[in-house]
Amino acid sequence: MAEAWAYERHPSAPGSPHPLGARRVVSGVNFAIHAPRARQVVLDLPGIGTYEVESRTGSVWHAEVLGVGPGQEYAFVVDGVQVLDPYALHVTGGLDGNTSRLRAYVADTAFDWGADVAPRIPWDRTVLYEAHVRGLTMRHPDVPEELRGTYAGLAHPAVLDYLVALGVTTVELMPLHHFVTEPTVAERGLVNYWGYNSVAFLAPHAPYAAGGDPVREFKEMVRALHARGLEVVLDVVYNHTGESGAGGPRIHLRVLDDTGYYRHAQGHYFDVTGCGNTVRADAAPAAALIVESLRYWVREMHVDGFRFDLASALARVGRGRVDVEQSLIATIGRDPVLRGVKLIAEPWDASMDGYLVGGYPHGWAEWNDRFRDDVRDFWRGPAHGGAGGVAGIARRLAGSSQEFEPSGRPPQASVSFVTAHDGFTLRDLVSYDEKHNEANGEDNRDGHADNRSWNCGAEGETDDVGVLALRRRQAANLVATTLLAAGVPMLRAGDEHGQTQHGNNNAYCHDSALTWVPWIPDVGWEHLRGVVGRLTALRAAHPVLRTTRFFTGEVAAQTGRQDVRWLHPDGRDWEEHDWHDGALRTLGMALDGGPDDRCAVLLLNGGDSTVSWQLPEAPWPASYEVALDTADLKRSGAVAHTLPVASHSLVLLVGT
Predict the structure, then answer these.
(1) Active site residue 346
(2) Is residue 309 annotated as part of the catalytic site, yes or no?
(3) Smaller CB count within 10 Å for the chain: N or C?
(4) Which domain holds residue 610?
């Protein structure tokens, strides 16, 4: 990739210890690497030659090579071991068994952003859409074949038109820091498709580029999404790297500064990630690498935020204890570059003490798995393993105040979801009682066993008309509950098309039609896209459906109505003992829109029979319009006083 003139040895100079990595300067490229225990560092520039790095400032070895530029391949050789630059901006290749075939190149960062402006979507208007760069477009009929599965494919007008019409505001992209497939997965003839195995925190995954420059193509994608008012949030994996455990590949950090980058305990790697190692985020070398990576993606790549995989691993200090306020988590939240973007934690790691839902500081939102579990439990019902009663679903509809209010954060601290990349798809959630992961080659031992799913009467695919009708209604109930609850809703890309993975709830290793979004839904599943589009539009139009404060139940002087009123089908006042009634399968929620918005009433019937529902009387509106009925998606018009709510259905009414 080097220019023809580069095949002659170029003069060098001592260079600078900052910044780390390979960065262009006026006369060439400055190379710098942190290697505190190294006795010798050699810079290898294929096509040009090798340079003994003789200048050292503290732990950093550095040299400037004159006359080289973008496209030049390079590597560091530390005490005889070739390593990948952890600060590389452009990386290609992967692993061959435990042998690294990764290659770094000097990146061309010049780019004309033009009039690019960050959309800065307020949290209360945010609708997250979790998507995979490759999987989103591999089956899109309107994206040219050569662009499918790439950054350019995601930026195609057909995709952008769809996202805008769907009503999502923020695309949360699964990991795209350059990653590798674990040797154990490759041995089974599979790949790491999800990407949770990063090796280069500053480099976009090269195979996602249709052309030869992933840095430029990524920027073009961001610019295109921003032009349509869409935000870009990256799912980032800083809790571990692809070097795995003690027997894993030696790629870079283990060679450069094992104890400065990785957490150890009793002579072994301290593993709370389930991936063989845990990055020591409270140590200066690792913290510097993570913060520099985050700042780079904001400043240079213009992304709008981050979702931190297994974020609690970054909340560990000292010998590994969890202390959020003294950890890198707090540092990130205070950083002047980072505090203005969206910060979302997956608030747990692979340990018991790392479960921290509700425990993150101001400025952070969190994936709320309690929302997921309570919503799933309500709609599957106690006869199919769910908890009885309605207290759990009420807490989640109201924004999970028990978890998030004590920290002084609003309902938007909760990222509410019922499905994500990890676990069943929405369609599979209502089609399977058990996981079916045999294709992963691990004898179905992998993946979560606690799915809180209900197959609606038959396991897997079926021709039973009644079962299919119930599944489709249940899927609509689940996605509607997500979009109508207080908090920030997150949708899994493909769910709105009725995507199935045939019961595989851990499809991380399949890069195939099994995991790619099906843009032409199977017959009978077309309704979900309409449900999502209708509800995102209603949510955007009515602030009452996206409250920014927790409910108190107090009566407003201007309207004479409570901010929230819980409703029984028979119209009587809700009483304390009702929250403890495990037999209840119905719940109504009336929301006061105040003087500037319309009231809304949400009615949920998780039972097996139709219920005649008494609507609230004055000072609540005398009549309502049906905005959504999951039992009859064509239902519309005005209702007053009472209305029937079918079994296993949800109805949304908006006051007239």
Answers:
(1) yes
(2) yes
(3) C
(4) 551-655
